[in-house]
Each structure stands twice: as structure tokens, then as C-alpha cells.
Amino acid sequence: MLDVKRMVILRDLAEHGRVTAVADLHRVTPSAVSQQLRALEAEAGAVLVEREGRGLRLTPAGTALAAACEPVLDALERAEGAVRALDAGPVGELLVGCAPSALATVAAPLVAALAVRHPGLRPRIVQADPEEAVPQLRQRRLDLAVTYAYPLLGAPPARGTTAVPLFDDPLCLALPETLLPAYQREGLAALRDADWISAPAPSSCREMLLHACRNAGFTPRIAHECADLRAGLWLVTAGRAASILPGLLCDAPPPGTAVVELPGRGRTLEALVRAGTQARPAIAAALAVLTGR
Predict the structure, then answer these.
(1) Residue 55 pLDDT more than 80?
(2) Averaged over 8-36, what is the pLDDT?
(3) Given this model, what pLDDT does residue 81 score?
(4) How far apart (Å, rounded) are the C-alpha atoms in residues 235 and 89?
(5) Closest to 148 in 3D by CA, of 199, 113, 202, 97
(6) Is the pLDDT of residue 31 over 90?
(7) Does residue 202 have a cis bond before it (omega within 30 degrees)?
(8) Regarding predicted confidence, which is higher, 82 or 30?
């Protein structure tokens, strides 16, 4: 019988390509990852990885086994969910990762509503951007993630997860009020020579800013990088810079800063769960609150 945890390590190696990355993901040493892979090879009776330079690559047998991992995990999640569904009600700890921009508008109301509906359930909110939340969700360090996606970027959902759309959040342009007339005349192209404020890479928010500016015919000059884009609004007027950020972060712009909603679709806030876990009482209770049921 193949060990499922070892199959997950093989799957992660197939995705990330480096033993050190898999070790970081699982919070173990690279040697521990290598030992688990050797043990899995013994169980499978096949060579699953082979040396390539200083790293490892999957053999055809390893690739086939890694591809088979996700359906196995989905089936196990559904089986565990069927057992949990027999519980009297949602109880225990519920680990929820939440994008910083949704803490006030989504996470806080979720905690308040669950306290009333299901007092035996203990939601624990962990601030995490999608780049952090998705791996934690897949590694079972989170039960649910409140995250977001930009449809225009076309990124597919993470494998092994199910996304439940919550609501749309428009994109807004923040710029010094002195530059507003030029923008109203020419659009984003009027800001081709301006400094820009962006989230650090890698970030889908940064990718969306680059996408919007390049569609306007220029590549923005990133003068400031700020993980907290709401705080970055204070750099707009002070640094005579511009930024594109979600509408949820633009409710209180500082004096001298103009905020304009950009045309077109922005981002979609969504609840992300591991495939097969939606019916678990605690997760189902959280999804019911998040979707207004």
C-alpha cells in the first residue's frame, strides 16, 4: 500500500521542481524529503526520481504516480467529510486564511456570525495573501482561505482546490489630485511618465497593475514597493505617484489623493477549500455565512 503523505511529497516535487522547495513547504529538511521519496520508491517497486545535475527529476513512473495523487486526496477528503457530516454540529477549531484586504470586510463579519450561529466553532483567522494561503490550504495547515483572483490574468484555480465566488471588487486608480485632469483627458496613458506604487513581486496585484499599464501603451516605472497597499495610498500624494489597487482598500484616501474606479472587471473575492471538503460541518457553516445563506 502506498503511503499518501509520501505521494504528496512526490506531487509537490512535480510542481515545484526542487527538493529544497518541497522541504520548505513541508517544514522538514531536504534529506528527510529524499528519504521519503526512497521509501515511496520501495513501496511502488519503481524508480520515481533520478538525478539531473544537482537536482532531481521525475521518471515516467514518477510523473504518472504524481498525477494520480490528486484524485486520491480528493477521495480521502470526501470520505473524511462524510464521517464529519455525521457530527451533531460544527465544533472545534476552523483555520481560515484571509487576504489582508478582506480582513475587515469578510473575516471580521465571518467571526461575528459564526459566534452567533455556531458557538461551539472556534474560527481562527490567519492573515495570508493568496501566494501564502494556497500552499497552506493544500498542506492542511488551513481549512479555508478567503482569497481573490483576477479573471483578466487568466490564472487557473490551484489544483486540488474548489473556489466559491463571493463578490466582485473593482479596481481603482489612485493618483495625486493635480494629475486627475490629465487622466480624465487621456486615460492611463497620461501617467506614462509618473512614478508608480506596487505590491512586491510575486503578486497578482502587481501583475494586474503591469497588465493595465501595458494595455495603455507603456511599462510603469515602479518607484515604491509596498505590501500594505492601503498604507501605500499615503505615498501617492507625498511622492506624486500613482497606484492601482482593489476598491476595498480605497474607502478612506488621504487628503490630496484622488481615487477613480477603472472600467472593466476587477477581481473576484472567493472562498477556497480543498476539493471534497465542502460538506464538512465546520467548512459548510463558514461557506453558508460567506455566501449569505
Answers:
(1) no
(2) 83
(3) 67
(4) 48
(5) 97
(6) no
(7) yes
(8) 30
What is the DSSP code string of 66-119?
HHHHHHHHHHHHHHHHHHHTTSSS--EEEEEEE-GGGIIIIIHHHHHHHHHH-T
Report the distance separating Cα 246 and Cα 205, nearest Å.
8
Q: Which residue has the cell 501617467?
A: 191
Supply the DSSP symbol for 89.
Answer: S
Q: Cβ-count burial of 70 within 10 angstroms (0-12 exposed, 13-18 middle, 19+ buried)? A: middle
Task: Give the residue from 115, 94, 98, 116 showing the smallest Cα distance to 107.
Answer: 98
Cell 532531481 belongs to 56
Q: What one-character DSSP code corresponds to residue 249?
A: G
CA distance 13 to 6: 11
What type of residue is 206?
R
pLDDT recorded at residue 175 = 95
| Listed residue (224, 227, 256) closest to 241, CA to CA | 224
pTM for the model: 0.74
